[in-house]
Amino acid sequence: MSGVVPTAPEKPAEEGENRVEAPDPRPDNPPNYKSHCVQAVPPPASCPGGLPMRFYSPQQPSTFPLYQPTSGIDPIQYQPGKHPMPNQSAPITWMPGPTLMPNCPPGLECLAQLDNIHVLQHFEPLEKVTGFETNNRYDIKNDLDQMVYIVTEDTDDFTRNSYRTLRPFVLRVTDCGGREIMTMQRPFRCTCCCFCCPSARQELEVQCPPGVTIGFVAEHWNLCRAVYSIQNEKKENVLGVRGPCSTYGCGSDSVFEVISLDGVSNIGSIVRKWNGLLSAMGDADHFEIHFPLDLDVKMKAVIFGACFLIDFMYFERPHHNVHQDRSRQ
């Protein structure tokens, strides 16, 4: 017994493991968060740069996604529905599509419910700098800034840059579903003849649906102003269009009146709005078309087509003059 060294009694293992640390009496000491920490989930092999934006960790206790930016700067998050993401285009608000209507060509139901539309041409800065003529594009909107149609020119590069404003063209009108509901065709007219010659007068054919002619826009020779006829599919005159004496007014709108055949009643108008510097130097025209709400929808479509013939004849800027001026300097 004398050779045995007394030792302290051993504590049970369970007592040491289950021991609870006494809280620190100091009020300023932060609490212990070790028991609430969740180990971060390593990114999967398919995402070497980190977890994707919509990846949720199965061990994450909260409902918020775990964001791990690849760089030191946090990515900017936009509120849904307010701002487009960097890799997304701006949202387009389309006019609600009405139901099918009797005696209305398919695709013109929206036009039948409107008494005015806005034709907005896209501005092409590269075309202005280089002088290379590109296909024109237009947005058709209502007063609520809702998209009604999209109009795209379909002409080859040689024809556009050789004939410029005199070029024959095909305009394709598409709706919200991308369906081509209307086609406008302008044939080539020789301008070397006398202006009073019928072969030199400009003409536009309107088809709806494509392949079915519903009307024409025919130019009439006049010494002082632009004069057109709105015709039906049989080339019978229904309405007239009378332009101003000068279409190059600076600082004011150019109004083309839609009149009756006797020239007494004013039916509507095609107004080229003045947009300041863009109207003077660039091809970014803004037209506003007015017609009666109860007008035959086919005649509405032909008046709509007359707007583009007027744009090509009077408001397309010939870019070859720019290159000539540079060569002289």
From TrEMBL:
<dbReference type="Pfam" id="PF03803">
    <property type="entry name" value="Scramblase"/>
</dbReference>
<comment type="function">
    <text>May mediate accelerated ATP-independent bidirectional transbilayer migration of phospholipids upon binding calcium ions that results in a loss of phospholipid asymmetry in the plasma membrane.</text>
</comment>
<protein>
    <recommendedName>
        <fullName>Phospholipid scramblase</fullName>
    </recommendedName>
</protein>
<keyword id="KW-0564">Palmitate</keyword>
<dbReference type="InterPro" id="IPR005552">
    <property type="entry name" value="Scramblase"/>
</dbReference>
<feature type="compositionally biased region" description="Basic and acidic residues">
    <location>
        <begin position="11"/>
        <end position="27"/>
    </location>
</feature>
<keyword id="KW-0449">Lipoprotein</keyword>
<feature type="region of interest" description="Disordered">
    <location>
        <begin position="1"/>
        <end position="40"/>
    </location>
</feature>
<comment type="similarity">
    <text>Belongs to the phospholipid scramblase family.</text>
</comment>
<dbReference type="GO" id="GO:0017128">
    <property type="term" value="F:phospholipid scramblase activity"/>
</dbReference>
<dbReference type="GO" id="GO:0005886">
    <property type="term" value="C:plasma membrane"/>
</dbReference>
<keyword id="KW-0106">Calcium</keyword>
